[in-house]
Amino acid sequence: MRSSWFLLCAVAVGAAVFGLSRLVQSEYFFFAGYVVLQYIVLATAWNILGGYTGYVNFGSAAFFAIGAYASVAIYKLRTLSGVVAIDDHVLFEIPKALLVWLSDLPIPVLIVIGGMIAGLVGLGTGYLTLRLRGAFFAIATLALAVVVQTLITNWDYVGGSRGAYILRPASAPLVGNYIEYLFLIMLSLAVIAVAAARAIETSRLGYGFATIRDDELAAEASGVPTLKLKLIATTLSGAFMGMAGAPLPYYVTYLDPASGFSLAYAVNSIAMPLVGGTTTWVGPLVGAILLGTIQQIATVTISSAVNLLIVGLILIAFVIIAPNGLVGLVQGWFRKKDT
Amino acid sequence: MADTLLEVDDLTKRFGGFVALDNVSLSVAQGDRVGLIGPNGSGKSTLVNCICGTLHNEGGSVRFNGALVDGMKTHERTWLGMARSFQLPRPFTSMSVKDNLRIPLIYTVDARAKSRLTQAELDDRCAELLTLVGLEDKAQKMPRDLTQVEMRKLELARAMAAEPKLLIADEAMAGLSHSEVTDIVALLIRLNERGVTIIMIEHIMTAVMSFSQRLIVLVSGRKIADGAPQQVIQDPDVVRAYLGQ
Amino acid sequence: MGIPYELLINAVIAGLLLGGFYAAVTLGVSISFGILDIVNIAHPAFIILGSYIAYIVNSKLGVDPIVVSIVMAPAFYALGALIYQVYYVSFEKRGQEALRSLAFFFGLLFVTEVTLILVFGVDYRYVEAAYIGPTLRFGFVDLPLRMLVPCLMSILLFLALQYFLSRSFLGRAINAVAQDQLALKLMAADPTRIKRIAFGLSIATAALAGALLIIIQPVEPSVGREYIGRVFAICVLGGLGSLPGTMIGAVLLGVVESLTSTFYGPSWAPAVAFGFLLLTLAFRPAGILGR
User: Fold this and answer.
1) Domains in chain A: boundaries
2) ipTM associated with this complex
3) CB–CB of A210/B95 below 8 Å?
């Protein structure tokens, strides 16, 4: 199926989901649904690098939080006076009105900005570390997560360790209810992310990624510019994670580094693709819906710490028993039927 | 007098204190069929890896088609026209045989031509390559379903897909039966007739002798002989170091 | 210059002691990652586990934490051997990509941390011992015993390991298994068994490191994550597989962290290690004494 057709189908599915949600009309559904959709984007983003090229990123939280904190930083522009000065010499003054206008930028714009910044950070990290073995890259991403968290915790402008409060606008475009609006945004982002992942997977770029995963040495010998492709994957992956994080401050209304860099993001963005299956776009989608829903139920019925424990155990189990994820199990089952 | 295609000058490679290659020099002309032999550990694979850029050499230089390739990445050298097959086949396991061949076509041939091959052209070339190595009916198979011989043929076909000027076949026949070896040698000669310069690294002397027009012997990282095969195998140094065992 | 030199010297000394302790934490990873090439990012979790066990026995029975850890070391060794067996069967034997094994250890790290949170909560825990309070004073130089004792224990551990790896048959086999499995087989030694012993040994060191950690600072479950970066930064900085390199790297990191903490504030300390790691990976991946 050509990518443009797939996108249309994906949009149709998305529209159907949204239509269904309006029928259900439950505030809780929008809240929980937002989280699951966010994980679809995160898992799909992680998989573009981790699943397609085989380079593991443990620092998903960093890219995600970059998107979130970019939004916070922009929101906080309204608190600035506009005066740019060194010591006591005033250089120039930015009109307050402009700052306020910037701080009210609509969420789609914030998403683009968050995505660009996170993508750049991904590019930079990749450039520093992708020449080395995959294991070193993985460790470097762990390092990155802590460095970024430390930097933001020490940045008082966005609230530092005390956190930042975000006031949601009174009404939302298109649908009125702000939570519904956020749900719709994340739904659109999920549709775009999945369609993009599929387009990459079936393209020449995707084949190149697969050769890196299968055998990087042979890929180079066949003429594949592996470093360039890895950088592309890292940038795209980081960008989508940043995009997933951009609306977060408006969703939670209070953001501090502990929650922005929560371990839940790091483990879920790895567990979901691994459980679902890392070689195709279907895996992260399935993994995110499955694990995301389980966790939403567990958080309500048990406790959030226990639900993280369950995710961790499922991750270990799948990695040992079903390394190709649920998709792999299904594929294997079909193959057995053929023989 | 054919043009020099590959020129290796005083190539040196060390691993810590161990000298794997010690001032190795050789040159290969366009259209040559060169055999490279030597005992295990003599540095043959290291030499290949340095020529192709997988390893960095500490001393000496490699020139391909007149251009200095030191410092160039492996894929850039492939774009220039160097190709190699691996001693232990390294197919792309997640894609079919045909897709394995598409990779060099997409990433090397396209890169050189700066224009894209159409889907139809890609299919044609893949079919051609598969027929050349005798894998036509395995196009849709996955590498894990292939026999040893078929994997080695795939390995060679994939190297050929990059339309190289120089093909280095690294022990492509190890562990194969006599008839299988004859098959591969015939294949390589066919390739050579199409204009590809070939360096064959092998232990199987029948293959080497029937294929090579020139024979180079490497022992302990040093080249100890370079010339016509019949003369080289009678060289007392070669006999002592290698063939006598 | 404006920097009070007493403060500077004390910061450096604190850094040296801290670095000595960091070495204890890292020696295990030097074995598992440096020699065996297993990326065990869950190592810090075992250290924290060691800390909590030391805490329990110390608070219930009043036993010295270091003694607890030495008693626990065989159990940790067994745990390490078990984990290696699972790792070997699931990943090494199958020739699986690094992705899966990384995810496996990440899972272990994660599960350990969350389990500790569930059992102990997020409050800081600490131990009591005779040497935790007092400080030796030489003029203006302060040597807190709670830092000095772990540093000395760490040096002992290093010397013991270095001796074991270079003199004993088993130790030399461990060094060899990294480089030449065939030679080992010819010597009728089973490479898998050797690796299992080595990995068990690396986890056993975590027991001691855990006790030392909770002597130096109060511990809560997420402290482990701070140490991932430190541990791998030191490993890479010191050169993979080189135990002396690990000591040097550890001391270097300790000093830089201490100086940063003293002059810029402790909240920047975690970034130091990881910044070091990123820079080292980017510019000199072979480390200082790399092989």
Assistant:
1) 3-262
2) 0.89
3) yes
